[in-house]
Amino acid sequence: MSHTEGGAESDKRMLRREFITVRNRLTTDDLREAATSLAERALGLPELARARTVAAYVSVGSEPGTLALVDALLARGVRVLLPALLPDNDLDWGAYAGEGSLARVQHGGKMALFEPAGERLGPDAVTDADVVLLPGLAVDARGMRLGRGGGSYDRVLARLERAGAHPSLVVLLYDGEVVGHVPEEPHDRPVHAVVTPSGVRRFTA
């Protein structure tokens, strides 16, 4: 690892702490209002209007809420894939069939996640998606995403690249999380758009 990569990683760690601290101050009402606005904005995206399969995720804790959005996509007849975390931090996928199809899974000392309870489709299932909704903590003016640091979505993006799949990559964030610059490492890839409760911003990725 070169000095610059090490520097980027420690800068990312510091930034992650800052964004998580701000998120943890949000009230239940803040979270609910943001989730409603986020779903409305995202559902207006042409990419999601055309999509037959969307890889999404179920938000946890103070993350921007996604359940209203995935339910609306399901109601539109979209096939929604949700991730299941594997022991090596890679992601398997399962189809969403409504809130009753979710299981709360505790992964060691980490936060409990809501995962699809049904059949596992394999890590390559994501390559069928027309749109991939990515969690994150921030996105900068170039479309570079600051993730949580687990590396799961870096693997997803690498898998898409290897498969020659080119879905639209969309990050869901709060308004204050679109910033001027986030540190990047060689494996980081820009996203195509960010959706926040107040609007959509596109990048020429």
Give a quick summary of the entry:
With 205 residues, the protein is α/β, with parallel strands linked by helices. It contains 5 helices and 12 strands.
Structure report:
The chain is globular and about 40 Å long. The chain has helices at 3-23, 28-43, 46-50, 67-75, 152-163; strands at 53-55, 79-85, 91-95, 102-105, 113-116, 131-134, 138-140, 145-146, 168-172, 178-179, 193-196, 199-202. The chain is an alpha/beta fold. It has a 7-stranded mixed beta sheet. It has a 3-stranded mixed beta sheet with strand order 8-7-10. Strands 4-5 form a two-stranded antiparallel ribbon. Helix content is 31%, strand content 23%.
Mean pLDDT across all residues, rounded? 92
Radius of gyration, in Å, reads 16 Å
Count the strands? Answer: 12
- Structural class of the secondary elements? alpha/beta
Describe the largest sheet: 7 strands, mixed
Give the oligomer, counting copies of the same chain as homo and different chains as hetero.
Answer: single chain
Shape: globular
Q: Give the strand order of the largest sheet, numbering strands 1, 2, ... along the chain.
A: 3-2-1-6-9-11-12
Helix content: 25-40%
Strand content is 15-25%
What topology emerges from the helices and strands here?
Blueprint: H1 3-23, H2 28-43, H3 46-50, E1 53-55, H4 67-75, E2 79-85, E3 91-95, E4 102-105, E5 113-116, E6 131-134, E7 138-140, E8 145-146, H5 152-163, E9 168-172, E10 178-179, E11 193-196, E12 199-202
Parallel strand pairs: 1-2, 1-6, 6-9, 7-10, 9-11
Antiparallel strand pairs: 2-3, 4-5, 7-8, 11-12
Helix pairs in contact: 2-4
